[in-house]
Amino acid sequence: MASSNPTATLPTARPNLAVRVRRWFDSAAAEEVDASREDRIDWLRAAPFVALHVACVCVIWVGVSPIALIVAGVLYAVRMFALTGFYHRYFSHRTFQVSRTVQFVFAVIGASCVQRGPLWWAAHHRHHHRVTDTPDDPHSPKIHGFLWSHIGWFLTPRNFRTDLSRVPDLAKFPELRWLDRYDTLVPVLLAAALFGLGVLLQRVAPGLHTSGAQMLVWGFVVSTIVLFHATVTINSLAHRFGSRRYDTKDDSRNNLWLALLTFGEGWHNNHHFFPGSSRQGFRWWEVDLTWYGLKAMSALGLVRGLKPVPAWVLQRARS
Fold first, then answer.
1. What string of pLDDT tens digits covers the 319 residues of the chain?
2. Rounded to two decimals, what is the model's pTM?
3. Residue 97, Cα to own-chain centre: how many angstroms?
């Protein structure tokens, strides 16, 4: 996925099959886009994503075990925290500081979520905040409908690309650019590791009743798909259902259930009113698991400079 200026003139020739398949693994592969198809789903490019959904039916054949469910749950929690705490609150909004090592570690964990690289994620999210719920917002349910905001928008040629002009502060790190370019490498390695773990446990601890295929399906496939759909509810449902404490120019809403599912991201109206805080649950009773995790990391010296909610923001609230 080459970085590009979205206003640049695009060639009309369509890329050959080999180049299009190569982009599954190298997002910087040479790109020639038919301008008339910029906002239509590229089904060939989206094929691995579709296949991941279809693979969930394999639970019928691989069965289930407590250890497989535990691994799936742990990977959901760890990766959700990486998305909410780092892809969102750190890379997109820079609401705290970390060392370069911690930055890369959580960029890798975030990449394992199969939600692209950190530069792509941050670039699109920053753009979303500038144009929320306007025709330029690629995932506004108000403008484009629920399904497009939930699962369609990022499968188009226009939104496959990473606009590095939106993330100059991040693009200066070569390791992040590399990770963004080869964003599929980390999920592939995670899937292989889980299969290997299942094979090992089957041999050394047969009483756990797991296998390589079972660990792959539950630990990677099911966990990843649940993680994805939980994450994108903030694009779709959090702009439709919930309460509005602040009068923002968009349709963002606070939703307790989505906050629980996404470790605090469901306090979306709070966030859109003041995105500069490390905390999205502004009230003590607004559960924000990501905030608690960041506070723990701060106590350990792994993160610093967590930005609080200013007093004037709380004073502007309706209740």
1. 334 444 444 444 455 677 777 777 777 766 666 777 888 998 988 999 999 999 999 999 999 999 999 999 999 999 999 999 999 999 999 999 999 999 999 999 999 999 999 999 999 999 999 999 999 999 999 999 999 999 999 999 889 889 999 999 999 999 999 999 999 999 999 999 999 999 999 999 999 999 999 999 999 999 999 999 999 999 999 999 999 999 999 999 999 999 999 999 999 999 999 999 999 999 999 999 999 999 999 999 999 999 999 999 999 998 6
2. 0.91
3. 20
